[in-house]
Amino acid sequence: MSEQQNFDVVVIGGGPGGYVAAIRAAQLGMKVACVDAFKAKGDGKLALGGTCLNVGCIPSKAMLDSSRQFHNLTHMFADHGITADNVAIDVKKMVARKDKIVKQFNGGVAQLFKANKVTAFHGFGTLHPERVVKVKLHDGGEAVLKATNVILAAGSVSIELPFAKYDGKYIVDNIGVLDFEETPKRLGVIGAGVIGLEMGSVWRRLGAEVTILEALPDFLAAADADIAKVAAREFKKQGLDIRLGCKVGKVEVKKNEVHLTYNDGKEDQTLVVDKLLVSVGRRAATEGLLAEGTGVRLDGRGMIEVDEHCHTGVEGVWAIGDCVRGPMLAHKASEEGIAVAEMIAGLPGHVDFNTVPWVIYTEPEIAWVGRTEKQCKDEGIPYKVGTFPFAAIGRAVAMNETAGMVKVIAHAETDRILGMHLCGPNVSELVHEGVVAMEFKGSAEDLARICHAHPTLSEAVHEAALAVDKRAIHKAN
After folding, report:
1. Is residue 379 annotated as involved in ligand binding?
2. What number of other Cβ atoms are within 10 A of residue 384's Cβ?
3. N or C, where is the chain less crowded by C-beta within 10 Å?
4. pLDDT tens string 399-456
5. Which residues are in the FAD/NAD(P)-binding domain (predicted)?
6. Is residue 476 part of a domain?
7. Whole-angstrom Cα distance, residue 179 to residue 169?
8. What CATH number corresponds to the domain at position 262?
9. How much is the pLDDT for 286?
10. Which pLDDT value is given to residue 1?
11. In this structure, are 306 and 447 located in the same domain?
12. How would DSSP label each residue in 126-163?
């Protein structure tokens, strides 16, 4: 049996929740260990950063940017007077660039661990009673860690459909879709969520015929309806074939093709593609995480039950990120990690889910924070709305990126901002005007009275805030 090692904090999971929690706890003077099972592509070494860094947020953004450059060169640069002959995309080189970026950041997190004296263990960690963590190391050994506090940050994994098992070649998840060696002629996608739309966009820009089958009758039901409508119109123009209300019942691989049978709400249909991405959601990665007798409870979906402070109810055991309630977002996990580390140190810590921003990195981008108009109606909250199109913004026109709009929702009586919803260029950055304003209990008038530089895309936020009280300058109210 391995000799027990003692720590103030042991974190299970090295993703954006876990590694951030580990670093913050170390900054606060604690002796910290972080256990992570992720293996780097190629060499199989420790690859800190979790799903987000290795096969999620970062690599997908790298490929989105590469594909966007190619699409702009072949479809938009001519408007600027720029032409090029024999344009081609080297998919293998694009994927290699993505891999290089991932490896760079893997090393960056490792360096941060070293600088903050966080001890990393490469293997699968399981929590046992009395805050003992046993680690099945990838080198074949075992480590036994005893902690005063344990933070469970196991993350999430893709949900696999029983009739469409991942084979890594024809039927893939978010990992496989990042590593195609060439652009598929026909790409099928089950699920019109963030992953489906982003990766569908990547391969559509590179020439694939992309068909997305979504079971729900509404497109982007989580987003504000006006924003979803604008986005759907733009995606249709781009050639993304998004079919709503379609339930897939059968998937078969025949002669290097994937054959799907689905019902569109009226009758059975068939679809034949070369590759199939299954992106129907994610589930908490809690399998094997808890030994018998820990007292930590899982709900019916396999998520760890916690209170509003991310505490499990078991002394010294906390849980954060994708394996607990709330949105499965990297930045939400990071904020919870910091909050928990600070609470362990006796400091106040809190995450306001009402001001967690959401972003979809398509073209145009989609972002929002706070309540949608439908949520306000359903909750009986009196509200008023201001909108403004990017087509009336000088910077957007100069950039040749005029699609989309900004929508500000404010309380009809107090004028306090309830939500901000955006679709357009760089809205992943602009949404934080809404986040900051809402964190400081700001009103639409507060945003309307802030001077915004001209010409900038942020003027759309300014004008939308003015429009809440029918004061927009550059459009008819």
Report:
1. no
2. 18
3. N
4. 999 999 999 999 999 999 999 999 999 999 999 999 999 999 999 999 999 999 999 9
5. 7-337
6. no
7. 10
8. 3.50.50.60
9. 98
10. 60
11. no
12. EEEGGGEEEEEETTS-EEEEEEEEEEE---EEEPPBTT
132-173 confidence digits (pLDDT tens): 999 999 999 999 999 999 999 999 999 999 999 999 999 999
Does 195 count as an annotated binding residue?
yes
197 is an annotated ligand-binding site residue? yes
Residues with a known catalytic role: 454
Cβ within 8 Å of residue 247, ≥6 positions away: 215, 262, 263
pLDDT at residue 439, rounded to an integer: 97
What does the alpha-carbon distance between residue 367 and residue 227 come to, in Å, rounded to a whole number? 9
Beta bridge partners of 44: none
The parts of the chain modelled with pLDDT lower than 50 are none
Domain that holds residue 234: 171-279
| DSSP per-residue codes, 247-276 | EEEEEEEETTEEEEEEE-SSSEEEEEESEE
Measure CA 2 to chain center.
Answer: 38
196 is in an annotated binding site: yes
Stated length of the chain:
477
474 in a domain, yes or no? no
**Looking at the structure, do residues 21 and 143 belong to the same domain, yes or no?**
yes
The reply, when asked if residue 61 is annotated as ligand binding, is: yes
199 is in an annotated binding site: no
Residues 436, 379 contacting (CB under 8 angstroms):
no
Q: State residue 2's pLDDT score.
A: 76
| Nearest residue to 50 via CA among 21, 22, 23, 13 | 13
Is the domain of 181 the same as that of 264? yes
- The values of phi and psi at residue 155, to 5°, are 75, -150
Start-to-end Cα distance in the chain: 74
Helices 459-467 and 427-439 pack at an angle, to 10 degrees, of 50
